[in-house]
Give the backbone structure.
Amino acid sequence: MILIPILALILGGVLAMANRDVAESIPREYIGVAVLAGVDTVFGGIRSSLEGRFQNDLFLTGFLFNTVLAVGLVALGFRLGIAEFYIAAVVTFGGRLFLNASIIRRQYLTRVMDIRGQRRKESDRQA
Amino acid sequence: MSKVLSRSAPTWLLPVTTVCLVTGFLVVSAWNQTPVPNAASRLQDRLGVQSGAPGVGESIGEKANEIAKLREEITKLENAVATQSRQANVLNDNLQSVKEFAGLTEVEGPGIEIVMKDSERASDDDFIGSAYVIHDRDVINVVNELWMSGAEAVSVNGHRVSVRTSYRCEGPVIYVGRNPISSPVVIQAIGSPETLFGALTMRGRYLDDIRQVDPAMVDVRKKERLVLPAYTGSTEVKYAKSGKKPQ
């Protein structure tokens, strides 16, 4: 079941390779923050599913809203003549990405520890 | 965990798959973006001054050679015409001396050679660092001092200086007329070697200022024989008309 999203990820990449004209027509300035927003949402989704708080609508709207907001910030920055405006989005998304990644890691670590602890208990009982 | 996922699979599958599809597309698109060339190499491309690839500089050089050859031929033809009569001969002598004065002929004679190059020292500070680099104003001032000191013909990096020669700074290169040059700048001048040498190396003069920053930046030498090429730039006169017509 988990394979389907991974396959979708690869399919998206293949689509981008196939339609290089479309992919390259997206302005360089926007694509960076859009990627960050996308990756941020994926990490956030993994984290919330591990915590058992995953919500469909929250996930999908979060992705759409964050991407649009990030790209909008860049566009606004260009209009205002503050080309560095996108840094706000980059720092926020980047920071959250690391936070989510650390939480995911911690979750998995505790899981592995729990399993080990249980096994040890069982072997103690047997002995 | 797999139990939890499989139970909620029907609901989460669609949004996650969608997001993954879009993210994959974006990541690969970003990866495929053509890289931004750095500012320096873009500037070099624009100016066509990099070595190797044939650029603007090279084609300018070819054209300049062509102009030099054609002008030499004109001189030969003028001399040929002059042999036919005494009047023509007098006229031609006059013409040739004017051309010599204007820098339209190759000339040779004694003089001095000044080599100015960027210092090997450098500074992170833009303001101070600028003093270690040879600028267009250095060329302007040195050429001016050469005229002041009685030079009869001057060339900068093999480009003859004429009344129309301009010097301008364009990023890392200096343009002498239309010819891009960069450090080291070699200025040759024909005139009395002793006078020119003395005048240019005098304390308090322009070259002394540069020497104060770094003595290695300037080198002045007397030369027994120098050959300066003819001016190859445009000599077109469009707007200026002679005020008094000779009677």
In short: Residues 106-232 of chain B form a domain with the Alpha-Beta Plaits fold (CATH 3.30.70.1880). The first helix of chain B runs from residue 2 to 32.
